[in-house]
Amino acid sequence: MVRQLTRLRFAMMTLLQETERRGILTVAHRDYVKALNLHAFFKLNDHEIGEDLVQNTFLKTWKYLVKGGKIEMMKAFLYHILNHLIVDEYRKQKTASLDVLLDKGFEPETDDAGRIYNVIDGRAAIVLIKRIPIKYQGALNMRYVQELSLREMSVITGQTENAMAVQVHRGLEKLRLLAAHGASF
Asked: Among 1.25.40, 1.20.1740, 1.10.10, 1.10.1740, what is the CATH number of 2-91?
């Protein structure tokens, strides 16, 4: 009998607590749902996903309250949870099925010939670069082999960006002349 009274008292306390917590969450939903939806839309640019994340925010908040968690600042708590859900959404791998990609016009390339020709042309260009004056070799190597910007090149060489651009341009002209005259590799 004593056990039953204890259980009944515990159940009543839980029922009272649940009613209180439900009221807290209802007020929070009424006060913050629009602002949370706007925040989620601003971050994701998708109303549907944003609304889903806001609903998940309230579900997580409810689970926290049911476990006995105390929330001092509801607005901050809700935004904290929503921001974590948004980050999780960003981190999700976006997978697209091959059928969807094919419907959109994507055709997977099965021929590696184009890539092979690009590699061969790149190697031929490097060989040709060695046949132009040293001043232009350095500029072309930095620009196209090391893929440096004009600013980075000017810092390395101590010359102005404009001077580096001129050297790259003149070096390319020399390469075009060599390629046009059929220079052997």
From this structure: 1.10.1740
